[in-house]
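Thread: "does anyone have the structure for this chain?"

Original post by V.I.:
We have the sequence but no experimental structure in hand. Need at least a predicted one for the grant figures.
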Amino acid sequence: METRRRSVVKAVVWNMMGLIIMSVIGLIATGSAAIGGTLAVVNTAIGLTLYVIYERVWAGISWGRNA
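Reply from O.Q.:
Generated one for you, tokens below.
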């Protein structure tokens, strides 16, 4: 079983990569670093929260594991 800390670290690393990508996309789409960055931060905060919950739910499901 995966620890809560591992789930959080994985989520943070994944979302930092997404934050960088979304910042660039936001900048290209809006032409504004401030607006693009804000969109990226909001997206990352929502994504991080949902990903941690998702990982924790799956950590508690034994289906598909070799025991």
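V.I.: this helps a lot. The chain has two helices and no strands.
O.Q.: and The radius of gyration is 15 Å.
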